Amino acid sequence: MKVKITAVAKQLPKYYRETKDIIPFVQLWMQDQDTRFQRKVTKLFEGAGVDRRYSIMDPEEVFTATSFEDKNNIYAREVVQLAEQSLKKSLEKANLKATDLDYIITVSCTGIMIPSMDAYLINSLGMKKDIVRLPVTEMGCAAGVSGIIYAKNFLKSNPNKRAAVVAVEAPTATFQLEDYSMANIVSAAIFGDGASAVILSSCEEDKGPEIIDEAMYHFYDATHMMGFNLVNSGLQMILDKEVPQKISDHFPAIVHPFLERNNLTIEDVNHLIFHPGGKKIVQTVEALFGVLGKNIDDTKEVLRLYGNMSSATVLYVLERFMDRNPAKGERGLMLSFGPGFSAQRILLEW
């Protein structure tokens, strides 16, 4: 049973600022901190590899002492709209209606909603009453790939069905106004908000790259490295500075055995569809792939244009490749990392 990705479409929030226009807000926020520390933070924003970021709220709102309740209410209102817009775009690309979907997976970790956003989409788009739902809420940056893996497994067992994976994230809603830790500052420097929707199919007539294989890789004793603490002021970022080194140490075990079980090597992969976790992670992976004669230029470009949008970001990279319509027989390797600590991999063939 072949499972294919037939369409990918993104949707950006209405607010955006260039990084140079964000820095005055950061400096005002840091005004009571040590002068040397202020310079360090400014330099960090300027060197993060992110030229622009989009947000579900205006910067004035982000740097205002709003409560967890206020920010989460904005999150709940805005992510449903972004989810609907991205899903409509992807359905249009695939020449489908909402009623053609049999399975919907919604992905988000940057706010709390019960019922989850898929329930709202079922109502607003008039989906089938028997559509299967799966909200994925706690896998962070890896969840865009995880959602595709879950959809693929459903479709593999159900011929002539279609699924949507909708990833919507708003990391700006997790910014902590009273937290001057490097984890909070680094996340503010690299993260942005955004949404993306992917359509998958086990229908023979539908076109798109086939998912050849997929796998997860879990790092032992690394639960402390990435995630959120739930505190009174909201979701507080956990981001260990050792993450790039951890990726580097495990990289051969993550990539090569996965390809070998498909009788392939990295030389057989034409496209690297890698999640841009941040500048240091991108540099780490670029060095590892560069030795193998590969580049991750699209990953760097997505980071520059939008920042890290958690689970949705790798889908922005995927869309760039899909829109180019690679030649028949070309292969792509999707790769993302997330809390746990874990790596998620998908092998595609056009």
From TrEMBL:
Catalytic site positions: C141 (acyl-thioester intermediate)
Chain ranges of the Chalcone/stilbene synthase C-terminal domain: 224-348
Chalcone/stilbene synthase N-terminal domain mapped to chain residues: 6-202
Keywords, alphabetical: Acyltransferase, Transferase
A GO biological process held by the record: polyketide biosynthetic process
GO MF, any single term: acyltransferase activity, transferring groups other than amino-acyl groups
Pfam hit, one: Chal_sti_synt_N
Family indicated by similarity: Belongs to the thiolase-like superfamily. Chalcone/stilbene synthases family.
Name the record gives this protein: Type III polyketide synthase
Organism: Polaribacter filamentus
